[in-house]
């Protein structure tokens, strides 16, 4: 795209380009030149909107993390419906089939990005910590409804579920795990906490 041609939403267009590259080619392929080429815009567009490439990546990560909030709200609203294991399976599959796994790889890959994110996100990896909060909130709601045992420690169950799911989905070069495999893992982690008739 020639310089001077207006983009519909330059920041989001650049974010979408970064996501496509990240999913297709991995974090090592994510450069400012690759992003602007993928977005079909002049190289200077990225630097007009962001101080530098790591500032762009930090905002990209935080914007993608922000997308977890609606997923978390929908999951909380599902409390009391379906089965607990089924709801958690669906939520984990939706989360890890999105750009989440690739974003975790990107944060791990780039030291400067991790340093930038620490300014606004002092502990943990943004995508994973938000995912833990989402699952813990849902499990707490189910515990309040009596579908999970009153003594269930959701603050231990949630990171266990997220960590194990991340391992299942981590290899983006092969096919994603089948729903049955994710459900089996969820059921195993939650075993002993689910009320018998409401699993």
TrEMBL record:
Keywords: DNA-binding, Transcription, Transcription regulation. One of its GO terms (molecular function) is transcription cis-regulatory region binding. PROSITE patterns: HTH_TETR_2. Residues 31-50 bind DNA. InterPro entries: Homeodomain-like_sf, HTH-type_TetR-like_transc_reg, HTH_TetR. The keyword Repeat does not apply. It comes from the Bacteria. Residues 8-68 form the HTH tetR-type domain. The keyword DNA-binding applies. This is TetR family transcriptional regulator.
């Amino acid at each position: 795209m020639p310089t001077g041609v207006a983009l519909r939403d330059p920041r989001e267009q650049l974010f979408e380009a970064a996501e496509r590259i990240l999913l297709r080619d991995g974090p090592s392929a994510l450069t400012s030149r690759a992003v602007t080429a993928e977005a079909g815009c002049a190289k200077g567009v990225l630097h007009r909107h962001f101080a530098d490439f790591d500032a762009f990546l930090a905002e990209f990560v935080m914007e993608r993390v922000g997308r977890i909030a609606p997923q978390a709200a929908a999951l909380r609203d599902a409390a009391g419906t379906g089965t607990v294991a089924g709801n958690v399976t669906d939520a984990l599959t939706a989360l890890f089939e999105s750009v989440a796994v690739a974003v975790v790889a990107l944060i791990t890959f780039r030291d400067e990005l991790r340093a930038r994110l620490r300014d606004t996100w002092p502990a943990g990896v943004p995508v994973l910590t938000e995912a833990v909060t989402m699952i813990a909130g849902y499990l707490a709601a189910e515990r309040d409804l009596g579908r999970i045992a009153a003594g269930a420690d959701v603050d231990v169950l949630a990171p266990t579920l997220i960590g194990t799911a991340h391992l299942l989905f981590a290899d983006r070069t092969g096919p994603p795990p089948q729903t049955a495999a994710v459900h089996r893992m969820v059921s195993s982690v939650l075993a002993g906490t689910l009320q018998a008739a409401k699993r």
